[in-house]
């Protein structure tokens, strides 16, 4: 469902309640989603809602950026390539609030693996033999 | 007790169905995003390696998102909000006459965004169903434990 909203004169194109979709991935992933129209650089803080990860990116930087996205109140969803989520698995697994939502996505070189997905792992393992009495 | 078990059964079926839907949603998402990657790679071959990279990201101040969401946690809801007038503007970052395949790539990623929102809804629904089922299982367990205690007491009385 989408709504057609005319831009205001101010820096935001929408009313106050809208949130951004953030993305953390390789260059093609980020370029693709930005083509899709989700990219934004905050007028005040100059911070982007995306992070390009290449072979030179430090894991600590990825971790820091992910955590900063979690803290921002203007980000509603974080899209993150699964192989990058693996690098910061503890931080990703540690987030159990519904907002911002986290979605692990495949990347060019790494197909999606449901067994590694944080949300799916939380959703499994519900029943024990006891429960079938 | 019977109604409790019935509830658990019903929720479990919903849970399993939703799980199946999520897996297939993610599969379609993977196929769609792959198409997007393919289109971008193809466009890069046509346009030149240096003409389709992060260096072309808009320097326009400020970079504004034309696609955002409204999201609430309880009840969990996500709706996409698109500025229809500007939603394809990002194509212009890469030149005024971009190859058609780049436009197709843009479409693929726009579809991927829709699928991603769908996946998020299903994810949250699954976790919610899980917590409901676990709650009911706990109730059932405590009920059974009480029953056992009463039975044991009756047996020792005899």
Automatic annotation (TrEMBL), chain A:
4Fe-4S as UniProt keyword: no
Signal sequence annotation: none
One MF term in the entry's GO annotations: proton-transporting ATPase activity, rotational mechanism
Database matches in Pfam families: ATP-synt_F (PF01990)
Gene3D superfamilies the record matches: ATPase, V1 complex, subunit F (3.40.50.10580)
Official protein name in the record: V-type proton ATPase subunit F
Subunit structure: V-ATPase is a heteromultimeric enzyme made up of two complexes: the ATP-hydrolytic V1 complex and the proton translocation V0 complex.
Ion transport as UniProt keyword: yes
Family, per entry: Belongs to the V-ATPase F subunit family.
Recorded coiled-coil stretches: none
Stated role: Subunit of the V1 complex of vacuolar(H+)-ATPase (V-ATPase), a multisubunit enzyme composed of a peripheral complex (V1) that hydrolyzes ATP and a membrane integral complex (V0) that translocates protons. V-ATPase is responsible for acidifying and maintaining the pH of intracellular compartments.
Listed InterPro entries: ATPase_V1-cplx_f_g_su (IPR008218), ATPase_V1-cplx_fsu_euk (IPR005772), ATPase_V1_fsu_sf (IPR036906)
TrEMBL record, chain B:
Record protein name field: Vacuolar ATPase assembly protein VMA22
One GO BP annotation of this record: vacuolar proton-transporting V-type ATPase complex assembly
Superkingdom of the organism of origin: Eukaryota
UniProt-recorded Gene Ontology molecular function terms: unfolded protein binding
């Amino acid at each position: 469902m989408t709504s057609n909203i005319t831009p205001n004169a101010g820096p935001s194109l929408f009313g106050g309640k809208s949130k951004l979709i953030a993305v953390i991935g390789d260059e093609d992933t980020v370029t693709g989603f930005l083509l899709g129209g989700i990219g934004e650089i905050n007028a005040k803080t100059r911070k982007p809602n995306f992070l390009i990860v290449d072979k030179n990116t430090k894991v600590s930087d990825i971790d820091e950026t992910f955590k900063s996205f979690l803290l921002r109140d203007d980000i509603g969803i974080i899209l993150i390539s699964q192989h990058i989520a693996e690098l910061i698995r503890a931080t990703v697994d540690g987030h159990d609030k519904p907002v911002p939502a986290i979605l692990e996505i495949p990347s060019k070189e790494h197909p999606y693996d449901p067994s590694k997905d944080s949300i799916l792992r939380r959703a499994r393992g519900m029943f024990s033999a006891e429960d079938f009495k | 007790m019977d109604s409790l078990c019935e509830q658990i059964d019903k929720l479990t079926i919903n849970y399993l169905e939703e799980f199946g839907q999520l897996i297939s949603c993610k599969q379609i998402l993977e196929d769609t995003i792959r198409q997007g990657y393919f289109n971008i790679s193809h466009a890069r071959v046509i346009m030149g390696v240096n003409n389709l990279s992060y260096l072309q990201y808009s320097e326009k101040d400020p970079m504004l998102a034309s696609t955002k969401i409204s999201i609430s946690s309880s009840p969990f809801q996500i709706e996409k909000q698109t500025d229809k007038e500007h939603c394809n503007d990002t194509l212009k970052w890469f030149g005024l006459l971009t190859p058609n395949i780049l436009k197709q790539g843009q479409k693929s990623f726009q579809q991927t965004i829709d699928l991603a929102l769908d996946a998020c809804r299903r994810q949250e629904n699954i976790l919610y169903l899980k917590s409901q089922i676990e709650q009911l299982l706990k109730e059932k367990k405590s009920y059974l434990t009480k029953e056992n205690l009463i039975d044991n007491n009756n047996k020792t009385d005899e």
